[in-house]
Structure of Pyridoxal 5'-phosphate synthase subunit PdxT:
Amino acid sequence: MITIGVLGLQGAVEEHLNQIKAAGEQAIIVKKPEQLREIDGLIIPGGESTTMRKLMDRYGFMEPVKTFFEGKKPIFGTCAGMVLAANELTGDEEAYLGLMDISVKRNGFGRQRESFEADLSIKGMEDPYKAVFIRAPFADEIGEGVEVLAVYEENVVAAKQDHVLVSAFHPELTGDDRFLQLFIEMVKTSVSKAELKTC
Ligand SMILES: NC(=O)CC[C@H](N)C(=O)O
């Protein structure tokens, strides 16, 4: 069994924990940087990215998360987590963690569409995926090494680069756990690679 940690400073934490447990994996809430040592993969949830980055600074998460990333451990940023993972933010704000070669526009779908659902076609998934968007961002620039997984109205709303996955929507708010399964596969692959190295 693998252990997935959900950054628990702010936002939609509980729903992720429940979905991971329902999928039969171990889930822990990460409130201190030391806990990153106990987990195989990290989810940075949706919420308010400006608040979350302040809290991450306050509790000293910035460098430990980067070390976790450099150690090739998988990270999944959902919604605000996608904003925090980006290399660049479209507009005047400075990017934060810089884990993926994308430029992200916060609240990209505008105020008139605070939240909505959309059926997306996702690369590698057979049936459409009903995605829940809440004040969602999107990626408007994509680097070469980034694999686009889903597009909505010509904007990139899910992507993967090496061991980092991002979605502009909230995969934890639907009964459909195919996005979590995708992340679980990434985590399992990284764990077996790490085991091979230590053999
Ligand atoms: N549901 C969400 O995570 C919203 C993200 C929020 N609009 C932000 O930019 O941080």
User: Anything to note?
Assistant: Residues 16 and 42 are 11 Å apart (CA to CA). The radius of gyration is 16 Å.
